[in-house]
Amino acid sequence: MAQPMQMEFQDAMSPIMEELLHFHDHTLMIVFLISTLVLYIISSMMMTKLTHTSTMDAQEVEMIWTILPAIVLITIALPSLQVLYLTDEVNNPHLTIKAMGHQWYWTYEYTDYENLEFDSYMIPTQELHFSHPRLLEVDHRMVAPMETPIRMLISAEDVLHSWAVPSLGVKTDAVPGRLNQTSFIMMQPGLFYGQCSEICGANHSFMPIVIESTPLQQFENWLSLLQ
After folding, report:
1. Separation CA 14–CA 185 (nearest Å)
2. For the chain, how many structural domains are there in total?
3. Ranges for the Cytochrome oxidase subunit II transmembrane region profile domain (predicted)?
4. DSSP string, 107-149
5. How far apart are CA 188 and CA 18, in angstroms?
């Protein structure tokens, strides 16, 4: 989950989020280089008082400021397209979970199992355990096995919502009457926190998402207790 005064992304807990972090670092280096070049040119102009030239025909300069931005755009676009197609890829999921957004809670349905459905409400501050994060903990977590391809089917019952878990690199709109899907693989056990990322009304800030990643054996034990 996010920490106080955190300026960077959350640690990557899925292959997709790792790719997103790499793309972010790659793009940020290009931004730094461009910013440094522009700052150098502005500083040079200020120090030499070079504010106007009598050059009327400068094909070399025009070629540079046309070709160079094109190269920069290509170096950003190619990795971006690769990550974009990776996020849309759903290959042979081992488990399918449907998340339905309501005002203001989530309902999870394990579609591969009969009668396995529950609501997930935020725990009020006055009922929190000492170790639970405020405004992020829920009464029923979504439990899923680690190192397993998981497909999420996401929709909404009433208004627009958005199912987002930053550490997994997942953010998918929940639209009434429409079924969107995304997928992820959790590489480590743990608790991964998210929130609704679409303004959905007065209690928009009070419908968190908690995913509990467990080894497969513990997930099967959890299933046996519910069934």
Report:
1. 6
2. 2
3. 1-91
4. EEEETTSTT-EEEE-BPPGGG--TTSPTTT-BSS-EEEETTS-
5. 13
Same structural domain for residues 157 and 76?
A: no
Return left, alpha or beta for 57; rule: phi > 0 is left, psi -120 to 50 is alpha, else beta. beta
Give φ, ψ of 5 to 5 degrees. Answer: 65, 20
Instruction: Say if residue 65 is in the same domain as residue 154.
Output: no
| Chain segment 45-86, per-residue pLDDT in tens | 777 765 555 555 667 778 888 898 999 999 999 999 989 888
Do both 115 and 203 map to the same domain? yes
User: Within this chain, do residues 188 and 161 fall inside the same structural domain, yes or no?
Assistant: yes
Q: Which helix (H) or strand (E) holds 99?
A: strand 95-102
Summarize pLDDT for 154-207 with one digit per residue, the tens.
999 999 999 999 999 999 999 999 999 999 999 999 999 999 999 999 999 999
Kindly report the backbone phi and psi dihedral angles of residue 193, in degrees, each rounded to the nearest multiple of 5, phi listed first.
Answer: -105, 145
Residue 59 per-residue DSSP state: H
Whether residues 110 and 128 share a domain: the answer is yes
**Residue 36 within a domain:** yes
State the virtual CA torsion across 95, 226, 116, 180 in degrees, nearest 10: -40
